[in-house]
Amino acid sequence: MSSATTTNHIHVYQGSVTANGIDGTQVSENGSYSSPVNVELVGTLAESKIVTLAVRTDEGYKTTGTVILSDVGDDNKANNYWSFCWTPTGTFKNSISTKDVITNKNKLFYAKAKATTTESAKLDKSVSLEITASIREDV
């Protein structure tokens, strides 16, 4: 998965991310795949895995209004191979939103990847996470 942004002041992070922290590795943006979210699944087991991610703005910026995170690149949305949730045990969807103000501190969210028993092994680059948000300087 690669993330795409509508502005360059908000980003997705992976790895060791903690709530309200500034840690993690920035996920690659705009299809560069330099640091994509990778999940290995066994299709014959219809396996799924949840990974913890974070969204945060650059220092000195914050969101206003509703922030939407959505999968805009999945070629087969009907199968919901990737879905997202603000909690690890909630309902996972193709798109999630919040009115929480996102600042330069991590706001955690969760991505669930799943495989089906009919899937063959492949490198899937069809998922693209888009962040729709209004960003302003945090003065």
Describe this protein's structure.
With 139 residues, the protein is mostly beta strands. The chain has one domain: Sandwich (Immunoglobulin-like). The chain has no helices and nine strands. The strands form two sheets. The protein has a five-stranded antiparallel beta sheet, with no helix packed on it. It has a four-stranded mixed beta sheet with strand order 1-9-5-7, with no helix packed on it. The N terminus is likely disordered.
Portion of residues in beta strands equals: 35-45%
Q: What is the rounded distance between the termini?
A: 33 Å
Unreliable runs, pLDDT <50, ≥5 residues?
Answer: 2-7
* CATH arch. level architecture: Sandwich
Shape: elongated
CATH class: Mainly Beta
**So how many helices?**
0
Number of strands: 9
Mind summarizing the main beta sheet? 5 strands, antiparallel
User: What is the H/E string?
Assistant: EEEEEEEEE
Count of all domains: 1
If you compute it from the alpha carbons, what radius of gyration comes out, rounded to the nearest whole angstrom?
15 Å
Q: Widest sheet: strand order?
A: 3-2-4-8-6
Average pLDDT metric? 87
CATH fold-level assignment: Immunoglobulin-like
What would you call the structural class?
mainly beta
Q: Helical proportion?
A: under 10%
